[in-house]
## 1
Amino acid sequence: MLWAVRFHPPEPLVVAATGWSPMAQVAAVMASVILALGATIVALVVRYERRLPDAILEAEHQNDRRVEARLKSRSAVILGLAKLAESRDDETGRHLERVRAYVRLIAEALEPRLDEVDRDFIETVVETSSLHDIGKVGIPDAVLLKPGRLSDHERERIQRHTTIGGDTLLALKRRWGDDPFLVTACEIAFAHHERYDGTGYPFGLEGDVIPLSARIVALADVYDALTCERVYKRAMRHDEAREAILDKRGTHFDPMVVDAFLEREEGFRRVLEAERAGGPGGADALPAIP
Ligand SMILES: [Fe+2]
Ligand SMILES: [Fe+2]
């Protein structure tokens, strides 16, 4: 018993004799282990939290790069298909590129005035403007390329390029859903020959019933047609085209779109002159034109 007491003394005896408790020491060791573990966990969490925003940012950048690459591919395919359609009757070359540049100038001038015009709207209208005449692929060469005066029947056939293009894009929209890109492409293909006073085609839409995207493309398209040479007409200078467009303010063209054109007419002149010079600085040199 004495032996047991000597070698395994009850804790109260030890405490009483030495003031030292084994249980207290174990508790102290455990406490320091727990503290050390806690500190390590806190350090790890802090490190993880510090790195988390970087990881999220990196993931977002990667995603942005993927989206950007997809959008670039889509732009290239669209422009390629539109150029293919245009190549059948393209007398002027680079019509689509110039229209894109003019559409951007008008849309950017409208941005501070209209809630519906934001960066997404601008990019979508610029992109889809290339498809405005895509329906010309459905017009026979004998009509589309006829050099002389068109009969009423032939003119009516050419005008069908709006419904051919619009119906094709509408079928895609029905299949793929109401993607803003397809919606805008439909609006432009159907309505870029509508006139603000209701005398256009194919539906005779009037005023703001004509989608804004199509009202913008209408002016850009006509400005380019006026300032380009054809076999049957000379190219107008910028100031002549400006007068012709002002003359149609409120009849052919939406007055608000004409005002946006006037606000950015230096940009129009710059694109036109650079394209005529044929050197760098043409429509492709403008920002954001792929
Ligand atoms: Fe057209
Ligand atoms: Fe056109």
## 2
Amino acid sequence: MSEEALFTGRAGQSVAIESRSRSRLGLVVTGLVGGSLVALYAVATPFVAPALRKICLPFVPATTAQVENVLNALRARSGTLVDIGSGDGRIVIAAARHGFLASGFELNPWLVWYSRYKAWREGVHRSTSFHISDLWKVSFAQYSNVVIFGVPQMMDKLELKLESELPSSAKVVACRFPFPNWVPEHIAGEGVDTVWVYNAESFKSLQHCGAVKKTTSENADTAESNL
Ligand SMILES: C[S@@+](CC[C@H](N)C(=O)[O-])C[C@H]1O[C@@H](n2cnc3c(N)ncnc32)[C@H](O)[C@@H]1O
């Protein structure tokens, strides 16, 4: 074989190797970009989804002052506590530190997993529990202290649900937005950190003019059609 032919053969081989490694690199880059997009979609969807519902209840964490106001409002209380829409678990964890057996119900699985991790890290995992659940599909009958940081559009429906489920001994604390028909026994804090405290005994005896009290499942149907 002539020197020229040998050179041409080697050059051809190296071009083939180069083009193979380039196409492999292309595959790796496509895989990485595709994988990152899928991961981003999986993480972002639960945070964006509430904005697409009819009643938008987004993740807005309670401020430190708000958490303090909640705990002060329940200072003389003990037993079970639930935070409806528990976000990153800050109210549940703070309540557990104050001796409550505290639970959170939250639609966003990432926030629930993060809350469980935080509770474990802060050493209160034995007195806390976090559930990936739709608030309209569970009963809060077993809780004697209820906390809700909701939005005005959902408060009238939640009133009916809690009226039918909670025992007369329960207390309810609403953060930032009050319930429309109940009369609070106490209001604490100011501005966005305001909390309204309600006594179940008084709101259970309150009659809604023209409103029909609904069971949990009926409430769930109504709420679903609204969300
Ligand atoms: C305003 S944030 C309050 C978070 C937390 N309670 C706090 O004060 O820091 C409302 C939370 O409710 C959750 N959420 C929205 N719709 C829900 C539903 N149908 N069931 C359960 N949680 C829901 C949102 O993901 C969000 O984390």
